Amino acid sequence: MTGIGSDVTLIAEENVLIFFDEKAPKELHDVAVLHKNGGLSGEVKVGDKFVLDGAEFRIVFVGDTANSSIRELGHFTVNFTGNTSEALPGTIYVEAASIPEIESGATYRFIRD
After folding, report:
1. Nearest 5°: CA angle at 82, between 78 and 86?
2. Pairing of the two strands 33-35 and 16-21
3. Which of the four pLDDT bands, split at 50, 70 and 90, describes residue 73?
4. CA–CA distances in Å: residue 64 to residues 43, 70, 72, 77
5. Are 19 and 108 in contact (CB under 8 A)?
6. What is the pTM of this model?
7. What is the pLDDT of residue 81?
8. What string of DSSP letters covers 7-75?
9. 8 A C-beta contact, residue 50 and residue 39
10. 91: helix, coil or strand?
11. CB atoms within 10 A of CB 51
C-alpha cells in the first residue's frame, strides 16, 4: 500500500476498508487505502482468502462487479462483517473479523488454496 487516507480509521469502525489505485481522483484519497494496481491473475471467488499484511480472511461473498472494478479501476471494498444480507455489487465480504491495524507499506493479496 502506498498511503492511508485520513478518514480510513473512521470507515474501518464500520468494519469496511475501501481500496483505490493511487491514480484515483484526489477527492477519493481521504477515504481509501491507496495502492498501485497490481491487477488480477484470475477471478476472486468465494472460498479464496484476502490476506492483509499476513492476516488471512476467508471470502464469503464476491459482488457482481468486484472483479471488473479491481481490474479496470484498482478499486474494491472489503466488508469484514460476514453479513451478506444486503450485499453490494462492488464489495468483497469476508468472514466476520476485526480489521487489523494497517500502515502505509502494508501488503494485501488474494489467494486460493
Report:
1. 80
2. parallel
3. confident
4. 11, 12, 14, 13
5. yes
6. 0.92
7. 96
8. THHHHHTTTEEEEEETTS-GGGGGGSEEE-----SS---TT-EEEETTEEEEEEEE-TTHHHHHHHHS-
9. no
10. strand
11. 14
Q: Is the pLDDT of residue 40 over 80?
A: no
Cell of 32: 481509501
Residues 6+ away with beta carbon under 8 Å from 108: 1, 19, 35, 50, 51, 52, 53
- Long-range residue pairs from 56-59, CB within 8 A, at least 24 positions apart, any chain: 56/111, 57/94, 57/95, 57/97, 58/94, 58/95, 59/92, 59/93, 59/94, 59/110
- Residue 59 confidence (pLDDT): 98
